[in-house]
């Protein structure tokens, strides 16, 4: 039997905002992937032990949802998650594992080939419950995109739809910058929720972030570069002012320089604090020169 692989993901727009019902746009990232495998020599591996603990959590919290007889039987065979998705980098390492476990052991699995808004919403809710083990609280979006492996437009918490995005191979690019160290989602999310207690922050999030974020999504899916980059500058500037604790310290100077020169704009990839930062540029070769001190990975060309 062919063992399915589950790819990484990139949340292009909507980081943190989707918690407060902002729009989001997420795409698969097939540069990294993971799959459940078996090897009796893996009983002492970290991955195997992690899945054992995860299985205990699922059995306690979602006892009717999974075939635990098969799950525990496979764990006795040395099951582990063979993944090259970097952990703590904002590209869906836990989401891919959640998707893999759901795909193999869910009792009433929702068929990914017969999707509608209702079934996508149910999947998201279920995945949010499953992934909360890793982050304390989860929107369910990461496992959803890892499971479905298609671009998703998040209109609201209850309204998610599949979408096609323009294809291109021009000078422009979306890219990743490696900050050099992983981040921890839990503490970053906690900082965000503390900020939400401040009326001023909530106001600017709902009025300014949502405006720039939604305009970026609209321009991106329509292939309109000028409004995309106008709003990316606003979005990058907003994040620098309001989400600075989430920006990896060694990236701050490069972040500011992008806004100053207009050669590229940076934004958070995932929860921040470390891992990857997401970049957008009209001229990738120029951005590479400007960011020569960093390791860049291309996500999308246009």
From TrEMBL:
Keywords of the record, alphabetical order, are: ATP-binding, Cytoplasm, Kinase, Lipid biosynthesis, Lipid metabolism, Magnesium, Nucleotide-binding, Transferase
**Listed InterPro entries:** GHMP_kinase_C_sf, GHMP_kinase_N_dom, HddA/FKP, Mev_gal_kin, Ribosomal_Su5_D2-typ_SF, Ribsml_uS5_D2-typ_fold_subgr
Q: Got a GO cellular component term for this one?
A: cytosol
Does the record bear NAD in its keywords?
A: no
Q: Which domain of life is it from?
A: Bacteria
PANTHER family, per the entry? MEVALONATE KINASE
Name of this protein: Mevalonate kinase
């Amino acid at each position: 039997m062919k063992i399915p692989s589950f790819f990484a993901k990139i949340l292009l727009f909507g980081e943190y905002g989707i918690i407060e019902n902002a729009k989001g746009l997420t795409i698969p990232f097939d540069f990294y992937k993971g799959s459940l495998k078996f090897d009796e020599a893996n009983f002492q591996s970290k991955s195997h032990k992690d899945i054992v603990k995860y299985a205990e959590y699922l059995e306690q919290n979602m006892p009717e949802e999974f075939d635990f007889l098969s799950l525990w039987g496979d764990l006795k065979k040395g099951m582990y998650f063979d993944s090259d998705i970097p952990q703590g980098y904002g590209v869906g390492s836990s989401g891919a594992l959640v998707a893999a476990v759901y795909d193999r052991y869910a009792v009433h699995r929702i068929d990914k080939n017969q999707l509608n808004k209702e079934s996508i919403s149910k999947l998201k809710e279920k995945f949010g419950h499953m992934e909360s083990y890793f982050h304390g609280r989860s929107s369910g979006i990461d496992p959803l995109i890892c499971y479905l492996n298609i671009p998703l437009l998040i209109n609201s918490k209850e309204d998610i739809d599949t979408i096609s995005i323009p294809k291109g191979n021009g000078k422009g690019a979306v890219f990743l910058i490696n900050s050099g160290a992983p981040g921890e989602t839990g503490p970053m999310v906690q900082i965000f929720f503390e900020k939400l207690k401040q009326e001023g922050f909530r106001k600017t999030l709902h009025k300014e972030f949502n405006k720039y974020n939604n305009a970026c999504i609209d321009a991106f899916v329509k292939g309109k570069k000028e409004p995309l980059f106008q709003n990316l500058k606003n979005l990058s500037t907003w994040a620098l002012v309001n989400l600075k604790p989430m920006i990896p310290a060694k990236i701050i100077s490069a972040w500011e320089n992008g806004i100053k020169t207009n050669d590229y704009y940076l934004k958070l990839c995932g929860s921040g604090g470390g891992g990857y930062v997401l970049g957008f540029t009209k001229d990738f070769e120029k951005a590479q020169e400007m960011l020569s001190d960093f390791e860049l990975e291309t996500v999308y060309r246009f």
